Amino acid sequence: MTTQSTPFPAATILGYPRIGPRRELKRALEDHWAGRTDEAAFEASAAQVRRAAVTRLRDLGLTEPAAVPLDFAHYDQVLDVVLALGALPARLATDPEVAPLLTEVDGATVQPLPLAVEWALARGTTAQGPLEMTKWFDSNYHYLVPEIGPDTPLAYRGSRRADHVREAAALGVAGRPVLVGPVTFLLLAKAAADAPAGFDPLDRLDDVVAGYAALLADLRAAGAEWVQLDEPALVSDSWARTTAELASAVGYAYAALAAAQERPAIFVAAPYGTLPGEALEALAGAGVEAVGVDLVKGELPDGEAPDLGALTLVAGVVDGHNVWRTDLDAAAERAAALAALGAGATTVSTSTSLLHVPHTVADEAGAPLLPERVAGWLAFADEKVAEVLAIAAGADGAPDAFAAARTALADRAGAPGVVRPEVRARAAALTPSSFTREPYAVRRAAQEAVLDLPALPTTTIGSFPQTAELRRARAALRRGELTEQGYEDAMRAEVASVIALQEELGLDVLVHGEPERNDMVQYFAEQLDGFAVTQQGWVQSYGSRCTRPSILWGDVARPAPITVPWATYAASLTSAPVKGMLTGPVTILAWSFVRDDLPLGDTATQVGLALRDEVADLEAAGIGVIQVDEPALRELLPLRRADQDAYLAWAVAAFRLATSGVAVRTQVHTHLCYSEFEEVFGAIDALDADVTSVEAARSRMSLLPAVAAAGFERGIGPGVWDIHSPRVPSEEEVTELLRLALESVGERSLWVNPDCGLKTRGYAETTAALQALVGAARRVRAEIGATTAV
Ligand code: MET
Ligand SMILES: [Zn+2]
Question: Residue 13 domain-assigned?
C-alpha cells in the first residue's frame, strides 16, 4: 500500500487539449507522416507541445503538486494503453512492416514501442488496415478500438507517460499522469477476429491488471505521486455486462492495483455521466485514494451513501464538454452537495477532460462571426482552469471571479436573440400534422410520375472534390483578395463543370457539388440566426484531425434562403433532376457546441423549423429531390438506455419537421454514414425518407438482409464505392455489389451511389469510380430487364 503523502489537489482539470493552440501537433504529425520530418524532429515538436501545455497550466495557477494532468498522446489515449501493454492483434503483430519492430520484453528494462508501431496501429500498413476507429462516449472524439483475443499480449512494455512525468519535473511541475483505466480499456475493446465464439475481452481482466500494476510501479519510479485512471465506461449501461457486474469488475481490478507495493496514489475519474452508487462503493472498498464524479452531465451517485472513509471525492462541476462560462455559485453548491456524502475530502475539477473544447477565448479577439457579447459568455480550456481555481477558493476567496460570472450569466440570459418569442411561439403551435407526410405508396406513385427515373437510379451523396483551387478561392476571399462577387463566380463555374461532368457520366439524379461549403455544418451555422463561428476554436476529432464546431447560443431562425440559389443555378444547366442538399437538424447539433439553457430537443425543433423553410423554398423553386443528411443521427445517443428512446423521438421528430412540409411529388432523401446503422435502424425507418443512402461498400452490403427482414420498403442506396480509400472500384466489383444488394432489396427500391460525399477525393478517382458505378447500374438493369423505378 502506498503511504499517501501528497493530498489530492484542491483544484484540477481532468485533461487538456493535446493538439496545441495553433494545432502544432497536427502539423507535426502530418509533416512526419508525409516524410518531411524524421522521428527525432517529430519527437522534438511533440515535446514542445507538451512542455508548452505543462507550463501554461502551471502559469494559469495549477501549482499544487499533481494538479497538472499529463495526458499527452501522439494519436489517441486508448492507443497509448495498447502500446503500453503491447496489445497488438496478431494480424498487425505478424505484419512484415511491424514484426521486426517488436522486441521481446525482457522484464528488467521497459522501452516504449517505437513510433512506427504506433503509426501502423493508427494508420495501417500496406497489407493490414489500422485498428478500427469509433466514437468516444457521447463526444465527437474518436478512439482506436483495441482487438483483444485469448492470446493477445498484455504485458507492460513501457509507456511514454513515465517520460512525461520526468519531463514535467524538469520544468518544476509535479504532474499527474492520466491513462484510460483497465476496465474501460477492456470494455472498449472488441474481440479479435481469431478469438473463439463467446470470448469477451473482459475475460482478460487479470492480465490487464497485472500490466497496469507494472505501469503504476514505473510511474511511481519516475516520481509520480498521483495517477489518474479514467473509467468513463462506468457511467454507461449500454454494455453486455450489467451495472452490478461492472461494479464488481472495478472493485476487483482496483483492489488488486491498490494492493501493489510501489504505486502512486490512485484517482479514478468517471466522466460523461452519473457514477452508479454501486461503482462508487466498489471503488471506495477497493482502497483507491480519490474518485472523480461528473456533476455536469451526471448526478450525485445514486443509492445509499456508502462508507467513504478517507476517500477524496473530486467534484466535476465545470463542464469539460461545452464552452459556456460556469455558473460558479451553482457549481460551488453542487460541490458542497457532494461533500455532504461524507468523504475524507472534496475537491474541484472539470467534469471531463478539456480535450473537447478549444484552448482559449483570448484567441477569438476580432473573430468576424463571433459577437463580442457572445464571446463574453464563453469559457474554453484556459478559462475553465481559472473557474476550477475560483470554485476551490470559494466566493469569499475569489469574490471577483464569482461576481464576473454572475454578470456574464445575467448578460447572457437577457441578451437579444437568446429568446425570440416568435421562434418559441412557432414551435409551440406545431401539431402532429406538422410531422407527417402522406403514405409512402401515394408519394411513390407521384414521384415515379414526375421523376421518370430508370430502375437502379444512380446518384452521388452531394459533394464533389474540394480542389486546391476551391480552397485557394476561399482563402483569398477571407484575406480580402477576392471580392464576394469574384468568389461567387468561381463557385458557379465549379457548379457548371460538376453538372457537365455528371451529364457526361450519365448519372440520373445530379447534385451541384457543394463547392461553396467550407464544412457541412459551419456553412449552415454561418447563415442561420443563433449561431456564432470561432476563428481558432479547433478541437481534436481523431489523430491529427480537428473540427471547428460552431457555437449555438440563441434561438434559431433562417433570415434568408441558404442553398436555393445554388440548387436553382445547377438545375438551370441541365434537364436531369437536381437534388437539393441540406444538413439535418441532429447533425447540425451534434457537430456544434449547443446551448445549455434550453433542452436539446427544443433546440432541435428550432433547427428543424429553419430547415423546413429552406426545404419549402427549394420545392417552390422547382427542386423536386431534396436530401437532408443525418450522418450524426447516432452520435448524440445517450449512454444510458433509459434516456435513449426520448432522444430518438426528438431526433426523428426534428428531421420529420424539416422534411414533411412538401408535396407528395417531392422526393425526400436522407444520408447516413458510419457503420452503426443497425443500432438505430428503427429511428432511421421512422425518418420516413423516400430514399435513404448508407455506407455499405466496406461491409459488402452486410446490413441489407436485416433491413429487408425488417420490412423496409422505401428506397435505399447502399454505398457501392468506399470513398474513404483512394482505391477505385472496377465496374465488375460494383456489379457484384449490386447483384448482392438485389438479394435483399427489390429492384424498384435499389439506388446506386457511393458511400458518402466525394469532397476528400480527387477528380481522377471520382471520374473513374463514377464511370464504374454508372456502367454497373446499366449492366444490372439489363440483366434484370428492368426499366422504371421510383
Ligand atoms: C458526412 S456525410 C456528407 C454528406 C454531404 N452531403 C457530402 O456529400 O459531403
Ligand atoms: Zn456521409
Answer: no
724 counts as catalytic: yes
> Does residue 607 contact residue 655 with C-beta atoms inside 8 Å?
no
Out of 135, 466, 520, 759, mutate this one to test ligand 1's pocket (max ligand atoms within 8 Å of CB): namely 520
Q: Where are the alpha helices (DSSP H) in 242-326?
A: 243-258, 277-286
| Cα–ligand 1 centroid distance for 428 (angstroms) | 31
Give CA–CA dist 748/650, Å, rounded: 31
Probe residue for ligand 1, chosen from 514, 521, 629 as the CB with the greatest number of ligand atoms within 8 Å: 629
- Based on the fold, state whether residues 221 and 334 are members of the same structural domain: yes
Binding residues for L-homocysteine: 461-463, 629
Detail the residues annotated as belonging to a binding site. 26, 140, 461-463, 514, 545-546, 591, 629, 671, 673, 695, 756
Question: What region does 452 belong to: left with phi over 0, alpha with psi -120 to 50, or beta?
Answer: left
Measured in whole angstroms, the distance separating CA 563 from the mean position of its chain's CA atoms is 26
Per-residue model confidence (pLDDT) at position 1: 47
> From its phi and psi, is residue 708 left (phi > 0), alpha (psi between -120 and 50) or beta?
alpha
Polymer length of the chain: 790
Task: Give the angle subtended at the CA of 247 by the CAs of 242 and 252, to the nearest 5°.
Answer: 125
Specify the pLDDT at position 108. Answer: 56
Burial class of residue 599 in the structure, from the number of CB atoms within 10 Å of its CB (0-12 exposed, 13-18 middle, 19+ buried) = exposed
Q: What is the pLDDT of residues 678-724, one digit of tens each?
A: 888 999 999 999 999 999 998 899 999 999 999 999 999 999 999 98
Distance, CA 462 to ligand 1 centroid (Å)?
A: 6
Please give the residue range of the domain that contains residue 381: 24-87+131-357+370-414
- Cell 495553433 belongs to 22
Based on the fold, state whether residues 473 and 380 are members of the same structural domain.
no
Give the three-class secondary structure for 156.
coil
The residue whose CA is least distant from atom 4 of ligand 1 is 757
Q: Which ligand minimizes its atom distance to the CA of 673?
A: 2
DSSP string, 661-726: TS-TTSEEEEEE-SSGGGGGHHHHHHT--SEEEE--TTTTTTTHHHHHHTT--SEEEEB-S-TTSS
**8 domain residue, yes or no:** no
Looking at the structure, tell me whether residues 594 and 633 fall in a common domain: yes
Residues with CB under 6 A from ligand 1: 461-463, 520, 581, 629, 631, 671, 673, 756-757, 759
Query: Which atom, in ligand 1's list, is nearest to the CA of 463?
Result: 8
Question: Both 399 and 450 in a single domain?
Answer: no
Nearest CA to ligand 1 atom 8: 757
Same domain, 400 and 516: no
CATH number, domain with residue 638: 3.20.20.210
- d(CA 473, CA 327) in angstroms, rounded, equals 42
- Considering the chain, what is the average pLDDT of its residues? 95
Taking the chain (790 residues) in runs of 10, the rounded mean pLDDT of each run is 78 98 97 97 98 98 98 98 96 94 68 92 91 91 96 94 97 98 98 94 98 97 98 95 96 97 96 96 96 97 82 98 98 96 94 98 95 97 98 98 98 98 98 97 97 97 95 92 95 97 98 96 97 97 95 98 98 98 98 97 98 98 98 92 95 98 98 81 95 92 92 95 89 97 96 96 96 98 74
